[in-house]
Amino acid sequence: MKKKILIIAVIIMVLGGIGFKYYQSKQPLAVNTVQIVKTDYEDYHYEEGSVESKDRIKVFSSANGKIVDLFIGEGDTVNKDDVILSVDQDDLKLELDILYAQKNALEGQEKSEGEVVKDSELKLQKESIEIAENKVSSLQAELEKQKSLFESGAISQNDYEQIEEQYKQAVSELNIQNFRLMTLKESSSLGSGKSQYYEGQMEKIDLQIKQLEEQIQETQILAPVTGTISNFSLVKGDFITKNQLLMEIFDPEQYEVEAYVLAKEVKNLDTGMTAYIEVESQNKTETVKGEITFISSNAVELVSALGLAEKKVKVLVEPKEPINLIQGEIVDVKFITYDKVDAQVISKDYIFPWNDGEGLWIIKEDKAKIVTINKAYDSSSTVILEDEIGEDTVIIIPPYPEQIQEGIEVSTN
Predict the structure, then answer these.
(1) Nearest residue to 261 via CA among 45, 54, 50
(2) Cys-Cys link to 263, which of 163, 234, 299, 410 (CB 3.0-4.6 A)?
(3) Which of 335, 261, 258, 255 lies closest to 298, judged by CA?
(4) How many domains are contained in the chain?
């Protein structure tokens, strides 16, 4: 009897299990879902930037020599055409005096109307040159001796400069004497065409005088623009050379931010796009809108804070709103690579390969359905749909039930 009851119980359980499975097969497939919604979307990343003056003018030397006058210093404000510094003009003025002396000698020679020069005059002039040469040699030797004494501290700078001035005057006198000998020799064999000769010589000297006068003017370095002096470290007495970079002048009211963006990310940026500059001020962060004004065409290799070598591209951002910035200050720059109002944003977890493209499970008329999607923008974790789907669409999300297939009736958990 007991055995018969046990068999009946087993049969009942089997039939019950079969019935339950049949019941389940007729029920909608339970799935997890989310409702698609529209939202304002923005994808961005941050980079550190350095505040730099927007209009920075480099100032170069226009002359060689020692700085004898200095009228500015680091951080000073100058106006356009202000004299910044002056370079020693003594050597140039000496050359100018020699030219004027040569011109006077030539004019005197012309007045003689080409009189034949006697051999005795040539001999006397040669003797004058010999005397001048001996004087130059003597003073040159003395100058070298005095230079050694000056460098060792045995004599003062004033004593050294006196013998140096005597040497320069002796050289000038020797040049004048040589020029006189040259004109004597030429006038002794002039013959016809004498006036043309003198005219040509005068023009040559006048041209040299003009060039020297221009060089003397260039010994005064003028400010090319109005602004503030920076990167200046020279002092009075320093020697500078022509075309040497002396300083920079910038407008303290015009700044831009220089940042470096990863090469793979800069492809999403363009000039004219908006970026935001964030400046730490005491215990708060001030944010202003900026505009990308420049993107370099070349990437450079920089080392990150983690010690990694990265290829980055220089990008300049100009503030478009008032903000107090400091030259060289480090700020944060927020670069917006993509933004869209009322965007349909979907997690990449909901998307899978489908028919040579990508698809998405949705519920349509209480049944599971796959729709093909087109992406307007693809970030690291989400996509923005190009072709929008209905705002009331319900998306089926992972994990997907094993039984899921298109057309199967589903219900939300």
Answers:
(1) 45
(2) 299
(3) 261
(4) 4
Distance CA(133)–CA(105), nearest Å, equals 20
> Residues 306-357: pLDDT tens digits?
888 999 999 999 999 988 888 889 999 999 988 899 999 999 999 999 999 9
The tokens 């349909």 sit on which residue? 344
Pairing of strands 29-35, 410-412: parallel
Instruction: Classify each residue of 127-147 as buried b or exposed e, where b means 16 or more C-beta atoms within 10 Å of its C-beta.
Output: ebbeebeebbeebeeebeebe
List Cβ neighbours of 382 (8 Å cut-off, separation of 6 or more): 345, 346, 347, 348
- Close Cβ partners of 329 (under 8 Å, ≥ 6 residues apart): 50, 51, 279
Give me 3's structure tokens.
Answer: 């055995």
- Identify the domain boundary among 232, 250, 268: 250
pLDDT tens figures, 385-408: 998 888 888 999 999 999 999 999
In three-state secondary structure terms, 273 is coil
Partners of 397 in the β-ladder = 32
Instruction: Map tokens 């003397």 to a residue.
Output: 216
d(CA 341, CA 343): 6
Which domain, by its residues, includes 237?
Answer: 56-87+220-250
CATH number at 310 reads 2.40.30.170
The number of angstroms, rounded, from the C-alpha of 46 to the middle of its chain's C-alpha atoms is 20
- Whole-number Å distance between alpha carbons of 93 and 78: 28
The string of pLDDT tens digits covering residues 228-269 is 888 888 899 898 888 999 999 988 778 899 999 999 889 889
- Closest to 135 in 3D by CA, of 89, 110, 101, 170: 170
**Beta-carbon count within 10 A of 115 CB:** 12
Query: Do both 246 and 134 map to the same domain?
Result: no
Is 238 among the domain residues? yes
